[in-house]
Design a protein that fits this description.
heterodimer; A: Cathepsin B, Chain A; four-stranded antiparallel beta sheet; globular; disordered N terminus; B: Methylamine Dehydrogenase, Chain H; six-stranded antiparallel beta sheet; 12 helices; 34 strands; disordered C terminus; deubiquitinase activator activity (chain B); WD40_rpt (chain B); acetylation (chain B); WD_repeat_creC_regulators (chain B)
Chain lengths: ~375, ~625
């Protein structure tokens, strides 16, 4: 299934040793092995596990697409978008076609080339219009925002059409207001940025929406700790003083950021790529950051609902390798109670215990790790 | 090597810390590891664990330790704070192929200077019984992996038994074995013995008695650790599904349940008097659970990652006669007292001793510790204001005075704690309601558990003025007992009101909805403890924490077992040699190692068969 016109730079990335792998990585040959591994009785009805062909360094894309496919609310919305009337081709219609094609396969396992989606992506964004290794998080961000934009634009069109028919032009204001789409309903949460002036004690807070949280990582910590740190109080002083509206002057202040509204799917991006001033390049932090299968947030602000909702880990995009511009992305997902590993065109069932292989490394010397990069937690309620 | 300190990278790693009882100091020459002292590359291997035993050696050098690193298992004389470790002469060393040791436990009853019984659990599910002193006898259990193929997570001798042991697996099953029986040549057939919410116990159906005697299925996912109560009657299990489940081991009944805030529970331990259980887990928290009330009484936040071991410090768990907030040097006194090797009971006995011999007021502070994947050691104090939150301390003290003055010394009373204690109540004293709770402190939890058998046992009578309180207290206790009976007969977990019980039953399939119920109170509904100290003490995640009489023992995944001298105990070290001398000795030991390797290679397979046939 390799497209001969594409440079096979991706091959190099396959040399990374994956300890749980028993068979050589060759496209699609293990499809029936997966079926056997899961067992005919256990194989979930109406579920398909399809690998995605790598079109030359497109593992960043494949890994995120697989993770999103197994975020059920996202998949369902994409599929129902497909069911709507035919539209002009855009990134979302291409994604919908791809998801639809996976979901309607006769076979339960196999490989699909996401060709139309990739070429559309390359057409739409210069950033991805090459065969360079890309950042999976950047792609996730771009994809979610693009889909949200497409949906918003469509809503706007619909409304305008409706208004033209009714001849009602009075609500021009509303058009300016951003409509919430299902992308927002799934991924959007709200942070509240509280700043307390240390002079007058006035607390001002500003809300900020997010589709994912980017958290700093530390060696030998948990994602829980990284999230706590994310919300730790910081003091703004010296050059960073804060302009207090009450005092009408720059004052020292304390700032903290807490989650006010929890999203349905919490996407956590671990900031594993750090710019090193001396080296003039990014380096990878392979730190061991453990992530539990169940998660609650501690860093919530008291004045909101649903703050103690329980999340379940549903997908992890894993970065393998030593740096942001080289290496490989794979994804592990939870589906119907068991865990699967998607490595481009290869799909394998893995033991839940194997997840600990993706926490990172405790030794600071080796940077070549397979470590969790984007975590997808889905709310249980 | 973490112990040697001084290097650039070592600076952040602490080699000493101070609590109010004094300075704890890492003894670099008391570090145990593999003989070559090279850090073990720990990625993806089983946790390093340490087991201790005292063989009652005449010389007073009775302590032995066993630890596993990777596929190796070592058995050394442990010289503690007294002498430097001699790594050149392991009494026994074993290297395994195809399977790795994951955990081990000594039988403390049978240990002598000539023979010890060590159980070792393995990553592929097998259990081996070895004698690292005699070296000749060895038995294998689950050798063909017909009983369970998954990793052994915890193995322990049943308290008070020379032949029974319990093995937990990552499959979520637990098996009771008898060393005298074989495992049979076929997969066992099981027959249901008892079933309750989220657990089942099966017996093995067989013509001749064979192993396993019992199969326990507990919760969902791996059973990460279990711990017997100090009196051996109860069994606390923690699982990957985030639940603590406490069983009456003999009657096979569920006594109580708790759910983590989120994620799996990884470790569990009992307070020395059996009244509290502490767990640690993937929510980065330690959780204190009252055995008597079956509820969470506090959580502790200090770790930056998952908590891998929790343990009570029976030697610092203190009984105070004055202001409980002051601890001026009193710990020294306690350390000077001699307690038996049976560490688990020492505090309990001390508690009752204190209470029975003098009539001064008593307040208790429990000390426990935790280590985690964040490479940090945390120490925690469980003080009376946490144990009894509705009771102003000053009032409690005064009233306790009154109480103790009026109640007869327990020794003379000799009241059977089971006979609801009315005979020694003192209703004449107008003591306010909260008081009795403080007085019930020295009582053994087991009696309060409401399980009749344990009350009848009378073992906890030990001169404690049980129920020496007023009527309200009695009412509460009786009510409690009734509840328990009902719960037991229904086969449900214990819960105070039937409403709650229903709630729990309804939500049993969804642990998410346990939040706000007694199973898992909200964060704001229970006190949040802060650690007394919280120190980074290793490069690698910590996997061992053991409190001994004159030291604390920790170990990390790199295979270094560290000894931290307790305050005052470090002085003994000064009599030891100078640094250079130690270094010389180390060098020597390295040389001798090349020629003198007491290695006992063990292979799974033929070797084992041969040994098994000896049985």
């Amino acid at each position: 299934m390799w497209c001969p016109s594409m440079p096979c730079a991706g091959n190099a990335t396959h040399t990374i040793q994956l300890p749980w792998r028993t068979e050589p990585a060759s496209g699609g040959t293990n499809a029936s092995a997966l079926e056997k591994d899961i067992g005919p009785e256990q194989f979930p009805i109406n579920e398909h596990y399809f690998g995605l062909v790598n079109f030359g360094n497109t593992c960043y894309c494949n890994s995120v697409l697989q993770a999103l496919y197994f975020c059920r609310p996202f998949r369902e919305n994409v599929l129902s978008y497909k069911a709507q009337q035919k539209k002009k081709e855009n990134l979302l219609t291409c994604l919908a076609d791809l998801f639809h094609s996976i979901a309607t396969q006769k076979k339960k396992v196999g490989v699909i080339p996401p060709k139309k989606f990739i070429s559309r992506l390359r057409k739409e964004n210069d950033l991805f219009d090459n065969y360079m290794q890309q950042d999976a998080h950047e792609f996730l961000n771009y994809l979610l925002n693009t889909i949200a934009d497409i949906l918003q634009e469509e809503k706007k069109q619909e409304k305008q059409n409706g208004k033209l028919k009714n001849g009602n032009m009075n609500e021009a204001e509303e058009n300016n207001k951003q409509e919430l789409t299902w992308v927002h309903e799934i991924f959007q949460g709200t942070l509240t940025n509280e700043t307390r002036c240390l002079n007058c004690e006035t607390v001002s807070s500003k809300d900020e929406d997010f589709l994912d949280l980017s958290v700093d990582v530390e060696q030998n910590t948990s994602i829980t700790h990284c999230l706590r740190d994310f919300s730790n109080t910081e003091t703004l002083c010296s050059e960073q003083k804060y302009y207090c509206e009450t005092c009408c002057s720059k004052q020292e202040a304390q700032k903290r950021m807490r989650v006010k509204k929890l999203p349905m799917i919490l996407a956590l991006h671990l900031k594993r790529f750090k710019y090193m001033e001396q080296l003039h390049r990014y380096t990878k932090l392979s730190y061991r950051v453990v992530f539990p299968l169940e998660l609650r947030l501690f860093n919530t602000s008291g004045d909101a609902v649903n703050l103690d909702r329980m999340y379940d880990l549903v997908a992890v995009v894993v970065h393998c390798g030593s740096g942001p511009n080289r290496g490989h992305y794979i994804t592990i997902v939870k589906s119907h109670g068991f865990w699967l590993l998607f490595d481009d065109d290869i799909v394998e069932k893995i033991d839940a215990q194997a997840i600990e292989e993706f926490y990172g490394l405790t030794s600071d010397i080796s940077k070549n790790s397979e470590s969790g990069y984007i975590l997808f937690y889905q709310s249980r309620e | 090597m973490a112990a040697e300190g001084g290097g650039k990278e070592m600076n952040e790693i602490k080699t000493q810390f101070t609590t109010r009882e004094g300075l704890y100091k890492l003894l670099s020459h008391s570090e145990y590891s593999r003989p070559n002292r090279v850090p073990f590359n720990s990625q993806g291997s089983n946790p390093v664990r340490v087991s201790f035993v005292n063989v009652n050696d005449q010389s007073g050098n009775g302590d032995r330790l066993c630890f596993n690193v990777g596929r190796e298992l070592y058995f050394y004389i442990y010289k503690g704070v007294r002498k430097a470790a001699d790594l050149s002469k392991p009494i026994d060393k074993r290297i395994y192929k195809g399977t790795q040791p994951t955990c081990h436990d000594f039988n403390h009853l049978t240990a002598t200077a000539e023979s010890v019984s060590l159980l070792v659990g393995f990553s592929a599910g097998q259990v081996q019984l070895i004698d690292p002193i005699k070296k000749e006898t060895s038995k294998l259990f689950n050798e063909e992996r017909l009983i369970d193929k998954s990793r052994v997570t915890c193995v322990k001798w049943v308290p008070g038994s020379e032949s029974l042991f319990l093995v937990a697996h990552s499959s979520g099953n637990m098996y009771l074995y008898n060393v005298e029986h074989t495992c049979g040549t076929t997969a066992p057939h099981y027959q249901l013995l008892k079933q309750g919410e989220s657990f089942a116990v099966h017996t093995c159906k067989s013509k001749s008695t064979r192993n396993p005697l019992l199969k326990w299925t507990v919760g969902e996912g791996a059973l990460n650790e279990f711990a017997f109560s100090p009196d051996g009657k109860f069994l606390a299990c923690v699982s990957q599904d985030g639940f603590l489940r406490v069983f009456n081991f003999d009657s096979v009944e569920l006594h109580g349940t708790m759910k983590s805030y989120f994620g799996g529970l990884l470790c569990v331990c009992w307070s020395p008097d059996g009244k509290y259980i502490v767990t640690g887990g993937e929510d980065d928290l330690v959780t204190v659970w009252s055995f008597v009330d079956c509820r969470v009484i506090a959580r502790g936040h200090g770790h930056k990652s998952w908590v891998s071991v929790v343990a009570f410090d029976p030697y610092t768990t203190s009984v105070e006669e004055s202001d409980p907030m002051e601890f001026s040097g009193s710990d020294e006194d306690f350390q000077d007292l001699h307690f038996g090797r049976d560490r688990a009971n020492s505090t309990q006995s001390r508690l009752s001793k204190r209470n029975s011999t003098d009539s001064r007021p008593v307040s208790v502070t429990y000390r426990f510790g935790s280590v985690g994947q964040d490479t940090q050691l945390c120490l925690w104090d469980l003080t009376e204001d946490i144990l009894f939150p509705h009771q102003p301390l000053s009032r409690a003290r005064t009233h306790t005075n009154v109480m103790n003055a009026t109640s007869p010394p327990a020794g003379s009373g000799g009241a059977n704690p089971g006979s609801n204690g009315n005979s020694i109540t003192t209703p004449g004293n107008s003591v306010p309601p909260p008081l009795p709770r403080s007085n019930s402190l020295p009582h053994s939890a087991v009696s309060n558990a409401g399980s009749k058998s344990s009350v009848m046992d009378g073992a906890i009578a030990s001169g404690v003025s049980k129920f020496a309180t007023l009527s309200l207290h009695d009412r509460k206790e009786r009510h409690h007992e009734k509840d328990h009976k009902r719960n037991h007969s229904m086969g449900h977990i214990s819960s105070k009101s039937s409403d709650k019980l229903n709630l729990v039953t309804k939500t049993k399939t969804d642990p998410a909805k346990t939040l706000g119920t007694p199973l898992c109170p909200r964060m704001e509904d229970v006190p949040l403890l802060e650690p007394l100290i919280c120190k980074k003490i290793a490069h690698e995640r910590l996997t061992v924490l053991i409190f001994l009489e004159d030291c604390i023992v920790t170990a990390c995944q790199e295979g270094f077992i560290c000894t931290w001298a307790r305050p005052g105990k470090v002085e003994l070290q000064k009599q030891l040699k100078t640094k250079e001398q130690q270094q010389q000795e180390k060098n020597q030991s390295r040389k001798t190692l090349k020629t003198n390797k007491p290695i006992n290679r063990v292979k799974w397979g033929l070797d084992m068969h041969n040994k098994l046939s000896l049985n």
